[in-house]
Design brief:
The structure is a homodimer. Chain A is built from 9 helices and 10 strands. In chain A, helix 7 (238-243) links the parallel strand 8 (221-227) and strand 9. By secondary structure, chain A is an alpha/beta fold. Chain A has helices at 84-90, 111-117, 134-140, 161-165, 183-194, 209-216, 238-243, 268-284, 312-326; strands at residues 8-18, 21-25, 38-42, 45-52, 61-64, 95-99, 198-203, 221-227, 248-252, 288-292. Chain A has a single domain, classed as 3-Layer(aba) Sandwich (Rossmann fold), CATH 3.40.50. In chain A, the strands form 2 sheets. An 8-stranded mixed β-sheet of chain A has the order 1-4-6-5-7-8-9-10, with helices on both faces. A two-stranded antiparallel ribbon of chain A has the order 2-3. At the A-B interface, strand 1, strand 3, strand 4, helix 2 and helix 3 of A face strand 1, strand 3, strand 4, helix 2 and helix 3 of B. Strand 1 (8-18) of chain A pairs antiparallel with strand 1 (8-18) of chain B, so a sheet runs across the interface.
Chain lengths: 329, 329
């Protein structure tokens, strides 16, 4: 096998869970009635990590994936290149990847589905389970103007779009849940505290999660990186705004903001403009927020999935430099 | 942070998918009707891997988790010790961990659930989604004779039983599916071929998967390690039996086989006895099958989850030695 890189030298790697609640479920709710009722754990959050073996240890980075995705967002790209996880580890940062609660390795509560199956609950009480299509993904993630047609300057490795389709993991409970905060928020807050301080990086549907974690307890939050998600003034309380001035915040947007999104009523340009207002307001309140918008640097064609784009490590390098220059441990 | 081990030096690590089919789904089947119909990929299998940086490279090992679990079975133990993944990598073996199709990061097809929700399919057409309780797990996985009571000699780190509960990830389509072979079988076969030959290790509900993969194409299969699962004569065709003589097979069972299982009609002792018959028959047909039963070596108290037991690396060491001594690349 061809050696692509120098060896990756880790002090430690592995996995664990944060949070979770022990609940009682009926025999029917557990799917095989003959096996009986009992207790299960729900709302735990899966975490996997790599810690570099280096004397020049930097601040840990917690990476939160977006909608219809899992923690694999941060691992190998669809065309087989190094993910942001390894890039940050090679640059001295311990990296913690999570799967959002109720998705992928974080598991989920099957009770409502099994109750519906047995006629004990109305079918409409069951959550919608959303998966994005290849067609919608192409436009909403801005690979190109219409399905199968890339932008001339796209940075996405379009030959690997079929692989991207395989990254799709639907959410079972948390995206369209019963009222109440997503359990991933508190799990992230606890993880940051447990690490003694971390940068929280969120993408897309997970973009707001680092902000939400900081509202629960800002102590472990040393900086936020919000990638095409989260940052908006709409609905922010004064207390939340005050919290967001306590640490540096980097916002990141790709190119082709005016492309037709494919999602009714959704405009990436509007989110970008809202993010600029957010930055202005945070800074007016004494905070430290910035925008990384590669077209301003003469870099064009980045998509919503910039961690998979052909220039993914260039973008990662900007983020790494920003962390090293702005975040205090 | 205390340094537990020498650094782990990897030539490469990452993730990819094997297999998958592109299918068309209606707008309702995809969960958010306003987003429209389109194509998604189903039946892909998630794979993550670590390749050691060593001149003394051994044969790759593919690890297949059991029921109600994910690939995390092979990673860090519930009490925070090194998993079998890292142990085999540190001993020169590239390791490939999968999530079974329709579980965890392999994703799943939400169509039937969304059709039921919208009244377009009968609730009974929806699959049962099985999660095991803490109570059932304790007995079925032989931590002790009754819930909360460990065997005196148990090897399981019982203080971490609450963490074990968090490893539970239900299967969405594949365990109780429409007729047809589990797509994980062919994905495993393809993975073994792609690696140019591998040892396939399966556990419990996934114990038969390596055998199934070998029936599809034995060429990539250089050896099987079947841990409390799979190996039985019942239902084997002559052709399958002939295939199973082509490579060495190690079967592994823990202790306390006569403990009450908690599962109606299920006896681990009966499976063990069936496995001994299997071994005898394979060897009578010219094959090479063996049993690793630690009590025969004076090692007692191992559970169904021997990759998490306190002596997990002792068991892993026996398996590694067997591979190194019996499997030809």
């Amino acid at each position: 096998m061809e050696k692509k890189h120098l060896p990756l030298v880790l002090e430690e790697q592995g996995s664990f869970f944060i949070g979770g609640e022990r609940v009682e479920r009926t025999a029917i709710e557990l799917g095989i009635p003959a096996f009986g009722a009992g207790h299960i754990t729900i709302n735990q959050m899966y975490v996997e990590y790599m810690i570099p073996a280096t004397e020049d240890r930097r601040i840990p980075v917690i990476m939160v994936h977006g909608g219809t995705l899992s923690g694999q967002s941060w691992k190998t790209t669809p065309d087989g290149r190094m993910g942001w996880d390894e890039y940050f580890v090679r640059n001295g940062h311990p990296v913690y990847i999570i799967d959002q609660v109720s998705r992928a390795r974080s598991g989920f509560d099957p009770a409502v589905y099994n109750n519906v199956r047995e006629g004990l609950a109305e079918p409409s009480s069951q959550y919608s389970i959303f998966r994005s299509t290849d067609e919608l993904t192409w436009k909403a993630w801005r690979l190109g103007p219409s399905y199968g047609v890339p932008f001339d300057d796209t940075q996405f490795p379009v030959d690997a779009a079929g692989e991207l389709s395989k990254y799709n993991v639907a959410d079972l409970n948390a995206m369209f849940p019963a009222p109440g905060p997503n359990p991933t928020y508190s799990a992230l807050s606890r993880l940051a505290l447990q690490l003694g301080g971390a940068v929280l990086m969120g993408h897309s549907q997970g973009g707001a999660f680092p902000m939400q974690a900081s509202y629960i307890n800002p102590e472990g939050v040393k900086g936020l990186v919000l990638i095409e998600g989260g940052a908006a003034l709409n609905g922010l309380t004064d207390q939340q705004l005050a919290t967001l001035t306590k640490f540096p915040i980097l916002n990141v947007y790709g190119d082709h903001l005016d492309a037709e999104s494919g999602v009714p009523g959704f405009s990436r340009r509007a989110l970008f403009d809202g993010c600029l207002d957010f930055i202005e307001k945070i800074n007016a309140e004494g905070g430290h927020a910035q925008m990384l918008y590669p077209p301003d640097l003469g870099i064009f064609g980045n998509t919503h999935m910039m961690m998979f784009d052909k220039n993914s490590l260039t973008i990662a390098g900007f983020i790494k430099d920003w962390i090293d220059n702005n975040v205090q441990l």
